[in-house]
Specification:
7 helices; globular; mainly alpha
């Protein structure tokens, strides 16, 4: 089980590299699509819900997100992924400071939440 957790944790460290791979023209379109899904899922309130229910939290943290990341990484050519990992590791502080990119996701989820509350 610990090896499984370690593997999932290692895969999650590829998220910044996947964000960088989205900008590269040579990244296959399907990989860009999946990386976009990962970003929306990982940085949205949906990812917080399973954390309050242990079984769903394990399913989310150990299976769903790592599986999506693993598939996406396999679709990106090794050279591109290696370059993105290297750039992400050297510029991780810059990426973390770009919190402004999360504003559209937050606004979308606020609108969805407000709409749901209006219909209750």
């Amino acid at each position: 089980m610990f090896g499984f957790k370690r593997r999932a944790s290692k895969l999650k460290r590829d998220i910044p590299a996947l964000i960088l791979a989205l900008r590269i023209k040579e990244t296959p379109l399907i990989a860009k699509f999946l990386a976009g899904i990962i970003m929306v899922y990982a940085f949205s309130p949906i990812d917080f819900i399973p954390d309050f229910i242990p079984i769903l939290g394990y399913l989310d943290d150990l299976i769903i997100l790592p599986l999506l990341i693993s598939i996406t990484v396999k679709l990106i050519p090794n050279e591109i992924m290696d370059n993105c990992r290297m750039e992400a590791s050297t510029h991780i502080n810059k990426i973390n400071k770009r919190w402004l990119y999360s504003i559209p996701f937050i606004l979308i989820w606020l609108v969805i939440g407000w709409t749901l509350l209006q219909h209750m």
